[in-house]
Amino acid sequence: MSQRKYFGTDGVRGKVGEGKITPAFAMKLGYAAGKVLSKVGTKKVIIGKDTRISGYMLESALEAGLSAAGIDTAFLGPMPTPAVAYLTRTFRAEAGIVISASHNPYYDNGIKFFSADGTKLDDDLELAIEAELDKDMGCVESEFLGRATRIEDAAGRYIEFCKSNFPNALSLHGLKLVVDCAHGATYHIAPAVFSELGAEVISIGCQPNGLNINDGYGATDLANLQKEVVAQQADMGIALDGDGDRLMMVDHEGRALDGDETLYIIVREALKSGNLQGGVVGTKMSNLGFELALRDLGIPFVRADVGDRYVLEQLVANNWKIGGENSGHIISLDHNTTGDGIVAALLILTAVLKSNLKLQDLCQGMTLMPQVMINVRFKGDNNPLENEQVKQAVVDAEATLGDRGRVLLRKSGTEPLIRVMVEGADATEVGEHATTISEVVKTVCG
What we know:
Structural class: alpha/beta
Strand content: 15-25%
Shape: globular
Distance between the termini: 31 Å
């Protein structure tokens, strides 16, 4: 991918009021996108957002810019990212826009685009938008200004879409589920999906106030979900992140499954049912135990760079259908064009019901290697990964681990963090190496 000036791996993201996440930039971004999109098709864009208080501001600014370029907008209100991808396709819009910073705190926000097909924008369109951003903003004549409308039944449409991904012959009747929506965009969607399919649903993290998204709840913080599952004697817990594209699960004993385990369950069920096409795409962060378990099943496996964009690129390149990240992003192209936490949970529940096994039993056949990841915050434009002390610390760890483990350092694509990951057969050794390397990175970062 060509170097971007404004777009990152997942659109534009940052702290509200700083850099690119300001009303002025959002308005100009809307205008630039509108100018580009008006040249390639119909003049309609769908806008959805999560529950951050800044979403109102950015939504209005984007609409103003799009209108000035002659583009009509249709507002969805709070809506999961995968819902925007789906509704962009069904409404035949030229593009979909999501205002969200996913799993980040409320004071961050972001803007990302979907194509008319519900996939990430092509590189050439992103580059064309960036080129327009460097030009002065204008305005079409009044008679050509874009209009704004609201899609009132968006939530109901997406609920029905999610339910359509669950077999008609099955029911969730008799299952008690705790559903944690992270005070995010699925708060009015996920509980309805599972209850309408027959489950008894206990909802937590479903009281968004604009400031509490991902705060102590959701896929990035499972403690409350684990406690509630045990207290309610539930069959399992389902945790979604702020924009609903990430899934983590908890079994009936309160044990958390990570994204590699949930992806393994989905892959194995697809293999059993004859619906697995080719192999599976993971990332550089995928656990070595996951790779070995797929090898035992005779399933090809490739690692993409971290980020659902890169997982999707590898799926398309290989003509495969299933991939994901250990953070809980799971893509099943037979069901949606992007990661979809609710749909992924329904695929897991399908496997549970078909096998008549508990969630933890479905993980049999895969043993996760101990893996430790430490995040180190850095400032400025310096790249700690190029520092010789950091490189030497990695070399030393790799020499000790040999073929029994691996080390991966990378910059986060969404936050100013260096992620230090060490994996190996011995948990104590892994933890020691991760700590040593992260301390070196901290020293370098000042």
